[in-house]
Amino acid sequence: MERWLGKVALVTGASSGIGADIGRTLAINGMKVIAVARRMEKLQELAADVQRKCNAKLHPIRCDVQKEEDILEVFKWAEKHLNGVDVLINNAGVLSTVSLSEESTENLQNILNVNVLGTAICSRELIQSVKKRKTSGHIINISSITGHIADFLSTNMSIYPASKYAVRGMAATLRGDLAKEKSD
Protein backbone atom coordinates (compact mmCIF):
# COMPACT_ATOMS: atom_id res chain seq x y z
CA MET A 1 0.00 0.00 0.00
CA GLU A 2 2.88 2.40 0.60
CA ARG A 3 3.32 2.88 -3.15
CA TRP A 4 -0.23 4.26 -3.34
CA LEU A 5 -0.16 6.46 -0.21
CA GLY A 6 -1.62 9.85 -1.15
CA LYS A 7 -2.58 8.65 -4.64
CA VAL A 8 -6.11 8.88 -6.03
CA ALA A 9 -8.37 5.83 -6.33
CA LEU A 10 -11.70 5.78 -8.14
CA VAL A 11 -14.09 3.06 -6.98
CA THR A 12 -17.23 2.38 -9.05
CA GLY A 13 -20.27 0.79 -7.45
CA ALA A 14 -19.13 2.15 -4.10
CA SER A 15 -22.53 2.70 -2.49
CA SER A 16 -22.67 -0.76 -0.89
CA GLY A 17 -21.08 -4.16 -0.52
CA ILE A 18 -17.61 -4.83 -1.89
CA GLY A 19 -17.32 -1.36 -3.44
CA ALA A 20 -18.08 0.41 -0.16
CA ASP A 21 -15.64 -1.84 1.71
CA ILE A 22 -12.89 -1.20 -0.87
CA GLY A 23 -13.45 2.56 -0.76
CA ARG A 24 -13.38 2.58 3.04
CA THR A 25 -10.23 0.44 3.20
CA LEU A 26 -8.34 2.53 0.65
CA ALA A 27 -9.27 5.79 2.41
CA ILE A 28 -8.26 4.40 5.81
CA ASN A 29 -4.92 3.38 4.33
CA GLY A 30 -4.09 6.84 3.04
CA MET A 31 -5.47 7.02 -0.49
CA LYS A 32 -7.63 9.85 -1.77
CA VAL A 33 -10.80 8.00 -2.72
CA ILE A 34 -13.47 9.03 -5.20
CA ALA A 35 -16.48 6.81 -4.51
CA VAL A 36 -19.03 6.71 -7.31
CA ALA A 37 -22.45 5.10 -7.71
CA ARG A 38 -26.01 6.05 -8.58
CA ARG A 39 -27.23 6.24 -4.96
CA MET A 40 -25.77 9.51 -3.68
CA GLU A 41 -27.35 9.17 -0.22
CA LYS A 42 -25.49 5.88 0.33
CA LEU A 43 -22.22 7.44 -0.85
CA GLN A 44 -22.70 10.37 1.54
CA GLU A 45 -23.36 7.93 4.40
CA LEU A 46 -20.14 6.09 3.50
CA ALA A 47 -18.15 9.33 3.38
CA ALA A 48 -19.53 10.42 6.77
CA ASP A 49 -18.81 6.99 8.26
CA VAL A 50 -15.21 7.03 6.98
CA GLN A 51 -14.71 10.57 8.33
CA ARG A 52 -16.29 9.80 11.72
CA LYS A 53 -14.67 6.43 12.38
CA CYS A 54 -11.32 6.83 10.66
CA ASN A 55 -10.77 10.57 10.21
CA ALA A 56 -10.19 9.90 6.50
CA LYS A 57 -11.62 11.68 3.46
CA LEU A 58 -13.72 10.02 0.79
CA HIS A 59 -15.19 12.03 -2.11
CA PRO A 60 -18.72 10.86 -2.98
CA ILE A 61 -19.84 11.62 -6.56
CA ARG A 62 -23.02 10.45 -8.23
CA CYS A 63 -22.21 8.53 -11.41
CA ASP A 64 -24.19 6.06 -13.45
CA VAL A 65 -21.47 4.09 -15.26
CA GLN A 66 -23.82 3.25 -18.10
CA LYS A 67 -23.75 6.93 -19.01
CA GLU A 68 -20.49 7.98 -20.64
CA GLU A 69 -21.13 11.64 -19.81
CA ASP A 70 -21.29 10.78 -16.07
CA ILE A 71 -17.96 8.93 -16.29
CA LEU A 72 -16.31 11.79 -18.18
CA GLU A 73 -17.54 14.29 -15.58
CA VAL A 74 -16.01 12.24 -12.75
CA PHE A 75 -12.63 12.13 -14.48
CA LYS A 76 -12.81 15.90 -15.20
CA TRP A 77 -13.60 16.51 -11.51
CA ALA A 78 -10.69 14.30 -10.48
CA GLU A 79 -8.29 16.16 -12.77
CA LYS A 80 -9.45 19.56 -11.54
CA HIS A 81 -9.52 18.76 -7.81
CA LEU A 82 -7.05 15.89 -7.30
CA ASN A 83 -4.76 16.05 -10.37
CA GLY A 84 -6.24 12.86 -11.92
CA VAL A 85 -6.85 9.23 -11.06
CA ASP A 86 -4.06 6.74 -10.32
CA VAL A 87 -6.00 3.58 -9.42
CA LEU A 88 -9.30 2.42 -10.86
CA ILE A 89 -11.42 -0.20 -9.16
CA ASN A 90 -14.08 -1.30 -11.66
CA ASN A 91 -16.59 -2.74 -9.23
CA ALA A 92 -20.01 -1.58 -10.49
CA GLY A 93 -22.09 -4.45 -11.77
CA VAL A 94 -25.62 -5.54 -12.53
CA LEU A 95 -26.90 -9.10 -12.10
CA SER A 96 -30.15 -10.49 -13.44
CA THR A 97 -31.84 -13.63 -12.14
CA VAL A 98 -34.23 -13.94 -15.06
CA SER A 99 -33.95 -16.63 -17.72
CA LEU A 100 -32.52 -15.28 -20.97
CA SER A 101 -35.68 -16.51 -22.72
CA GLU A 102 -37.72 -14.15 -20.52
CA GLU A 103 -35.28 -11.24 -20.29
CA SER A 104 -36.27 -7.85 -21.67
CA THR A 105 -34.04 -6.10 -24.17
CA GLU A 106 -33.80 -3.17 -21.74
CA ASN A 107 -32.34 -5.44 -19.03
CA LEU A 108 -29.92 -7.02 -21.52
CA GLN A 109 -28.68 -3.57 -22.54
CA ASN A 110 -28.40 -2.51 -18.89
CA ILE A 111 -26.23 -5.53 -18.02
CA LEU A 112 -23.91 -4.92 -20.97
CA ASN A 113 -23.78 -1.15 -20.46
CA VAL A 114 -22.84 -1.39 -16.78
CA ASN A 115 -20.75 -4.56 -16.69
CA VAL A 116 -18.89 -4.20 -19.98
CA LEU A 117 -19.10 -0.73 -21.54
CA GLY A 118 -18.89 1.15 -18.24
CA THR A 119 -15.81 -0.88 -17.30
CA ALA A 120 -14.25 -0.21 -20.73
CA ILE A 121 -14.92 3.55 -20.65
CA CYS A 122 -13.61 3.92 -17.09
CA SER A 123 -10.49 1.95 -18.05
CA ARG A 124 -9.92 4.11 -21.12
CA GLU A 125 -10.23 7.29 -19.07
CA LEU A 126 -7.83 6.01 -16.39
CA ILE A 127 -5.23 5.20 -19.07
CA GLN A 128 -5.62 8.66 -20.59
CA SER A 129 -5.28 10.24 -17.15
CA VAL A 130 -2.02 8.48 -16.30
CA LYS A 131 -0.55 8.98 -19.78
CA LYS A 132 -1.33 12.70 -19.66
CA ARG A 133 0.53 13.00 -16.35
CA LYS A 134 3.34 10.61 -17.40
CA THR A 135 2.83 8.48 -14.32
CA SER A 136 1.84 4.90 -13.62
CA GLY A 137 -1.56 3.58 -12.75
CA HIS A 138 -3.42 0.44 -11.87
CA ILE A 139 -6.75 -1.03 -12.97
CA ILE A 140 -8.52 -3.66 -10.88
CA ASN A 141 -11.63 -5.30 -12.31
CA ILE A 142 -13.88 -6.87 -9.71
CA SER A 143 -15.54 -9.70 -11.55
CA SER A 144 -17.32 -12.96 -10.77
CA ILE A 145 -16.71 -16.67 -10.82
CA THR A 146 -19.31 -16.71 -13.61
CA GLY A 147 -16.68 -15.18 -15.88
CA HIS A 148 -14.67 -18.36 -15.44
CA ILE A 149 -17.08 -21.28 -15.03
CA ALA A 150 -20.58 -20.32 -16.18
CA ASP A 151 -21.18 -23.86 -17.44
CA PHE A 152 -21.36 -25.22 -13.90
CA LEU A 153 -23.62 -22.59 -12.39
CA SER A 154 -27.33 -22.51 -11.83
CA THR A 155 -29.66 -21.21 -14.50
CA ASN A 156 -31.47 -17.89 -14.67
CA MET A 157 -28.47 -15.58 -14.86
CA SER A 158 -29.38 -14.10 -18.25
CA ILE A 159 -26.28 -12.67 -19.95
CA TYR A 160 -24.49 -11.86 -16.69
CA PRO A 161 -21.89 -14.64 -17.18
CA ALA A 162 -21.31 -13.45 -20.76
CA SER A 163 -20.69 -9.92 -19.49
CA LYS A 164 -18.09 -11.21 -17.03
CA TYR A 165 -16.40 -13.27 -19.76
CA ALA A 166 -16.28 -10.04 -21.77
CA VAL A 167 -14.54 -8.19 -18.93
CA ARG A 168 -11.93 -10.96 -18.75
CA GLY A 169 -11.33 -10.71 -22.49
CA MET A 170 -11.15 -6.93 -22.37
CA ALA A 171 -8.63 -7.02 -19.52
CA ALA A 172 -6.42 -9.46 -21.43
CA THR A 173 -6.54 -7.32 -24.56
CA LEU A 174 -5.80 -4.18 -22.57
CA ARG A 175 -2.80 -5.83 -20.88
CA GLY A 176 -1.46 -6.73 -24.30
CA ASP A 177 -2.05 -3.24 -25.69
CA LEU A 178 -0.31 -1.59 -22.74
CA ALA A 179 2.61 -4.03 -22.84
CA LYS A 180 3.06 -3.26 -26.51
CA GLU A 181 3.15 0.46 -25.67
CA LYS A 182 5.64 -0.29 -22.84
CA SER A 183 3.28 1.36 -20.35
CA ASP A 184 3.31 0.85 -16.58
Describe this entry's structure for a reader.
It is a single chain. This protein is α/β, with parallel strands linked by helices. 52% of the residues lie in helices and 13% in strands. It has helices at residues 17-28, 40-54, 68-82, 105-132, 146-149, 160-180; strands spanning 8-12, 32-37, 58-62, 87-90, 138-141. Helix 4 (105-132) runs parallel beside helix 6 (160-180).
Quick recap:
This protein is an alpha/beta fold. It is built from six helices and five strands.
Shape: globular
Mean pLDDT: 91
Largest sheet: 5 strands, parallel
Low-confidence stretches: none
Number of strands: 5
The Cα radius of gyration reads 17 Å
Order of helices and strands: EHEHEHEHEHH
Please report the distance between the alpha carbons of the first and last residues: 17 Å
How helical, in percent, are the residues? 40-55%
Portion of residues in beta strands equals 5-15%
What structural category arises from helix and sheet content?
alpha/beta
**Number of helical stretches of at least 4 residues:** 6
The strand line-up of the biggest sheet is 3-2-1-4-5
List keywords for this structure.
52% helix, 6 helices, 184 residues
SSE diagram, text form:
Elements: E1 8-12, H1 17-28, E2 32-37, H2 40-54, E3 58-62, H3 68-82, E4 87-90, H4 105-132, E5 138-141, H5 146-149, H6 160-180
Parallel strand pairs: 1-2, 1-4, 2-3, 4-5
